[in-house]
């Protein structure tokens, strides 16, 4: 997270959550510029030795490889000057009750607190006041003429941004643009012949590979920390557009927007978030892949804004139960739970229950892969989808829309229903005319009671059953027919309130 405190506060306050929370730490955007190659930084070399054997005819035993630790001093020395400290001044809102008591910790022990309390006490209804804030983050230079990448959350609501270089020079920076969806921002300072960092391709990044971060945790400029890549393609809550790089590199408040380097001195990502119970480093940190950042930054530099494409679907993860129900060899892909009426997916022929296995030849392994791929493509582009539908693969072409377009209402279709399915443990009946009108669902079976396997899976009375294993059902015979042909589990498409979700039910 970026480190932010109110102006005048004598103490830095951190919110401590009872449960683990994902906290932003900061990162930035990037433009594609030609970079010179970095000096190798002591890439480890594995050696294999075989001990002498008393039996010349027996196979020689092979010792475990010895691996030397990398030397990051070259990377730090060469690229440290291109990493900057970002100082942000802005304002935030603070609320007060009718008794003049502050309801925002932002004030801390500010000496003007009592003045604001007394002034606000004149208003029995309470209200809000603008409170000056001061935040810090990191960034890195990607163009010698002063283009800098950082996180969008570092410069959010900024009134004044100052960039400090390692040679102690300071510049007022202009925010060229930012994209909250990917947490990427681009700054510009008026300077020439600045040091720059080389950019890598994260496709070549491997789990277990050594990486290091350079940034300004707690305002400590050019701090170097190192670790390994823990995972790639991580999804985080409310971050559907970024397949994060997970590392165990120590990052803390103020590291936001700083670069993540490989051992060759190339930037592979932007340090952006941490997973923490206290607000400090606990062994899990996340970086935005540099290709995502450069894609966004190129749009910002060329047009001053960012546009994301949309397919018009809601997706779910494909677990083993779903894979068994749909007869998939592996639990991979993005399960379509909902299709926006009149949207790009609807026009392309996608249906709820389809499993997208690849897009433009690139494999979709996890459900987050699909929105991340779509969000970085130019609106209006046509993509080729490989879809698993009712036991076979089909190919579809979809012309992507613009995410800023208004989302249409979604409705499900079917016909009528009767009553029970003992194997599932459901009691079903048709929707009456009033229920159809109020819910907007033309067809579906109302679940009056759920027991047995369905109840254990999370099906609730009041849900509306729309399909089983991707087949729309309009009566009890259709439900029995599909369930009778199923193996270990079935996937029920359920309408619950305004949402549609797939619920896998393991059969007895």
With helices defined by DSSP (H or I, 4 residues minimum), what is the helix count? 9
Percentage of helical residues? 10-25%
Helix-and-strand structural type: mainly beta
CATH architecture verdict of the largest domain:
Beta Barrel
Radius of gyration: 28 Å
Please report the first level of CATH classification, the CATH class of the largest domain: Mainly Beta
Biggest sheet record: 7 strands, antiparallel
Distance separating the two termini: 47 Å
Q: Strand percentage, roughly? A: 35-45%
Q: How many domains comprise the coordinates? A: 3
Describe the structure.
The protein has helices spanning 73-79, 113-120, 290-303, 320-325, 344-348, 369-375, 433-439, 452-457, 476-484, and strands spanning 3-6, 21-24, 83-96, 127-143, 147-150, 158-164, 170-179, 184-188, 210-215, 223-236, 239-247, 259-262, 267-276, 285-289, 309-310, 313-317, 334-339, 355-359, 362-363, 382-389, 392-399, 401-402, 420-421, 426-430, 445-450, 464-468, 471-472, 489-496, 499-506. With 508 residues, it is mainly beta. The protein has 3 domains: 1-33 and 69-83 and 138-153 and 175-304, Beta Barrel (Thrombin, subunit H); 309-402, PDZ domain (Pdz3 Domain, Roll); 420-506, Roll (Pdz3 Domain). It is globular, with a radius of gyration of 28 Å. The two termini are 47 Å apart.
Descriptive labels:
Thrombin, subunit H; mainly beta; Pdz3 Domain; seven-stranded antiparallel beta sheet; 3 domains; 37% strand; six-stranded antiparallel β-barrel
